[in-house]
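Illustration 12: Acetylornithine aminotransferase.
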Amino acid sequence: MTVEQVERDWFENVMVPCYSPMEMIPVRGVGSTVWDQAGNEYIDFAGGIAVSCLGHCHPVMVNALTEQANQLWHLSNVMTNEPALRLAKRLTQLSFADKVFFANSGAEANEAALKLARRVAAERFGAQKSEIIAFDQGFHGRTFFTVTVGGQAAYSDGFGPKPGDITHLPYNDIEALRAQISPRTCAVMIEPLQGEGGVVPPTEAFIQAVRDLCDEFDALLIFDEVQTGNGRTGAFYAYQNLPVVPDILTTAKSLGGGFPIGAMLTTDPLAQFMKVGTHGSTYGGNPLACAVALAVVNEIAKPDTLAGVKQREAQFREGLLAINQRYPIFSEIRGQGLLLGAVLNDAWQGRARDILVAAGNEGLLVLVAGANVVRFTPSLVISEQEIVQGLACLERAIASLYR
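Figure caption equivalent — predicted structure in token form:
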């Protein structure tokens, strides 16, 4: 049977138009290199938006998926399975958590976290304790609840009445938080390093104040580590680089290395409030997903892998600063590990997407974080040579725009 050639214009014909993908279509990937239909080569500094933590087709992932695919694909939450139990046990070993709930995405993990926080507050203190505090420019997913908690109106407006009792405050503003938090607050949800909002790190004083105020007002602290987790910052979870520990943590993206899976992690005292029937997921804890994720987690958790993230961060920073000396367009490089943002200076405001497009034309895949930040979230095991190649592509792209 002849297989019909896929054309890029199919996207406009058959896909809901909520994305604006590049013109090329990737068909194969190895490590941090991908090839399109025409055989053109690209270095991948985007990593599937911080998902492809081991690059493309890493042997430990391929082997785990193949082995599990020949054993058991799906059951349901009517029963448990070995890969799910192994993965849950491993995640508790690597974190503060005692209990794990599996979902299919970061948004679903965050939905579970928010529902747990509301349930705990209602049962412990009463229905009046329902306020959720989150932060401007935060991002927590695309379900109606999580997109409302995320602090970007462009993503949540236009869909009718929003879930209520959600307050947004400026990130890194201790006084604003101190003025708002009260006995009505049930939870504070925060990214320990804002990703979509511009790769913005918290000050140590701010994150400590968030923890202290949550304790003072019996509010739960939820860390959204969907983008920062699983080795992305050089620690297995970003909170491990900070002086505080959350009550609930959410994780996805790099957790499966490209296979869809998310998880909510919490403690024994809080987990007991999610009684049988209060929450669930048909696919959550799927044996295929959990088998792949366990292989990914074990690879990331190796000391050499985590140390390598810091080494690669240093190489990225050095290379970006060198480019900036020749073509000064960045005001600063911020972030941690391999979640880095190159912030455009005043003369280049609003041109992050121009750089993304120009980079693609030069054979490099990058991301943006808003209109003024070029974002890099490559594989955690990207080779030194691939970084060199990618930075050379980036310099050519910037040079073309600079001229």
